[in-house]
């Protein structure tokens, strides 16, 4: 792991999550935290928005209060490897601030919008000072988000999007940018013409909707590119494989695959190979799922648009900044980068499992359940 532009020292940090207390040894920036006297909360370089951008800043003076704070984090789920690393990064970042965070309440909705709304209501009832939410769907927990804001509890939207604008900041790699990267690469590989299949994430989720929207912004400029079919396969390798098996039988000619995620791209490649079609003969997109990146490195084909797992850590920093009265961007973007076979060596992690994603977690951090 490499964290940019800071000196790090080892300390022990106590943290309570729900009713469970545990002791962690973590690496923290020497300038991290919120010292007594109202000093500024430092933003680690890895979380900063792109240089040269001028985001709309939100005045947070009305949320300023003395700590320590109760922070609630409502997560939609931890049902895949990316989500696990996202979640662990939030816990790791929170553990850096034992004097500022007295309680860190976390919930997992298991991809249920109804449960997430209930979770948010419960966090509000616990008297959290700030609420972080990774929404299950664009509609999920909107009433709870708006209720929190009406009670002067600042809401930070992490990773995904929501239909309401009643939040203080959104910390994410814009899914629409990931889609644009994927669409632009695919259009270039096809020389502006061909028949393609779109394999997508969970129906109605922000990433599924916005990645397709971004790709379509690019692809719609090419009248000779036709989308034969679209299928949500829930970030699942096996579901993507089944869908691709069906499409190989249904369509005589497929020229490219718009896959929103690398784990689905792996299933697509398997289905093509088993059907007697060389997967390297078709351009296939994806994200930075390590198994897919290793496949690209080995086969010299395919691409990824990165979706950093660490926007959850930025959300912890944002919550502390808001409660300290510091302005934050309305959209706090962590950029996506595109890599293909010619550059994949810059991001692939050969000594990690297929289920890994690029991460800022230190090697000493124990991932729950692993």
Key phrases:
single chain; Rossmann fold; 2 domains; 3-stranded parallel sheet; disordered N terminus
In short:
This protein has helices at residues 81-94, 113-125, 142-150, 175-189, 206-219, 237-250, 262-274, 290-299, 311-323, and strands at residues 8-17, 20-29, 57-58, 69-75, 101-108, 130-133, 155-158, 169-172, 193-200, 224-232, 256-259, 303-305, 328-329, 331-333, 338-340.
Give structural notes:
The protein is of the alpha/beta class. The protein folds into two domains: 11-30 and 43-173 and 308-326, Response regulator (Rossmann fold); 175-305, Rossmann fold (3-Layer(aba) Sandwich), CATH 3.40.50.2300. 31% of the residues lie in helices and 22% in strands. The protein contains nine helices and 15 strands. It has helices at 81-94, 113-125, 142-150, 175-189, 206-219, 237-250, 262-274, 290-299, 311-323, and strands at 8-17, 20-29, 57-58, 69-75, 101-108, 130-133, 155-158, 169-172, 193-200, 224-232, 256-259, 303-305, 328-329, 331-333, 338-340. The chain has a six-stranded parallel beta sheet, with helices on both faces. The protein has a three-stranded parallel beta sheet with strand order 10-9-11, sandwiched between helices. The longest helix is centred in the middle third of the chain and has 15 residues, at 175-189. It is elongated and about 65 Å long.
Helices and strands, with pairings:
Layout: E1 8-17, E2 20-29, E3 57-58, E4 69-75, H1 81-94, E5 101-108, H2 113-125, E6 130-133, H3 142-150, E7 155-158, E8 169-172, H4 175-189, E9 193-200, H5 206-219, E10 224-232, H6 237-250, E11 256-259, H7 262-274, H8 290-299, E12 303-305, H9 311-323, E13 328-329, E14 331-333, E15 338-340
Parallel strand pairs: 4-5, 4-6, 6-7, 7-8, 8-14, 9-10, 9-11
Antiparallel strand pairs: 1-2, 3-13, 12-15
